[in-house]
Amino acid sequence: MTVERLENGVIVQRNTNEIEISITLDTVHGKLEGSTGVNFFDHLLNTFCHYSGLGLRVSTCESKDGILHHLIEDFGISLGLAFRELFDYTKVRRFGEATVPMNEALVGCYVDLSGRPFFQKNFEFSVEKIEDMPVEGFEEFMCGFVNHARITVHFFKFFGKNDHHISESAMKSFGLAIARALEGSEKKTTKGVID
After folding, report:
1. Per the structure, how many domains does the chain have?
2. What is the DSSP string of 57-115?
3. pLDDT at 192 over 70
4. Domain containing 44: what range?
5. Which of 10, 144, 145, 157 could bond 123 through an S-S bridge, CB–CB 3.0 to 4.6 Å?
6. Is residue 191 part of a domain?
7. How far apart are CA 44 and CA 39, in angstroms?
8. How much is the average pLDDT of 83-92?
9. 14 touches 71 (CB < 8 A)
10. Which keywords does UniProt give here?
11. d(Cα 142, Cα 137) in Å, to the nearest integer?
12. How many CB atoms lie within 10 A of CB 61?
């Protein structure tokens, strides 16, 4: 994996026996450019970008073994590393939270840019796929992102039956929580460092 810093962004390239990914994460555009080849995953990524205010350009996203699990997980790894490289967690608010309704679904997201990776959600999906994306991809993406961004993320589903609505409500709340955590603040940590 290689990382290249830009003025307002980071390029991450990841090439394994399973996938080849090249992405740029920036603080300027606030939208997704390009495609992962998985339409619903693209929809979730664009949702995250819109609500977080971050820009994501996908230059390359190819599966060498045809297994979506690997592609989605490795995309999360790449994006998480880009996020970690782009932001200094000691210079932002650090904590963020948001709760977002979408029709019958209501999901909250709670974020800590702590330097300590942890992911938890209190819901499971009731179907195997949402559109063209295996539902296990949601958790694989989030775990890849969280572990390499080194942040804590909790999702709490208050209500919801439709898996499309639940996943989109979750991603909207994640984007908003990240945006709030990235705001400037004088209060970061009582121990003086984030590691």
Report:
1. 1
2. EEEEEEESS--HHHHHHHHHHHHHHHHHHH--GGGS--EEEEEEEETTEEEEEEEE--S
3. no
4. 2-181
5. 157
6. no
7. 9
8. 95
9. no
10. Amino-acid biosynthesis, Cytoplasm, Histidine biosynthesis, Lyase
11. 8
12. 23
Give residue-wise pLDDT tens across range 1-55.
899 999 999 999 999 999 999 999 999 989 999 999 999 999 999 999 999 999 9
pLDDT value, residue 4: 94
| Structure confidence by residue, pLDDT tens digits, 40-75 | 999 999 999 999 999 999 999 999 999 999 999 999
Residues 164/130, Cβ–Cβ less than 8 Å? yes
Residue 80's CATH number: 3.30.230.40
pLDDT at 191 > cutoff 60: no
pLDDT score recorded for residue 115: 95
Question: Does residue 90 lie within any of the structural domains?
Answer: yes
In sequence order, what are the beta bridge partners of 22?
13, 60
Residues near 88 by Cβ (< 8 Å), separated by ≥ 6?
A: none
Q: Which residues of 66-100 are buried (b: 16+ CB within 10 A; e: fewer)?
A: eebebbbbbbbbbbbbbbbbbbebeebbbbbbbbb
Distances from the Cα of 153 to the Cαs of 45, 118, 167, 179, in angstroms?
Answer: 16, 6, 15, 13
Quote the pTM value: 0.93
Query: Would you say residue 187 lies in a domain?
Result: no
Type of residue numbered 106: L
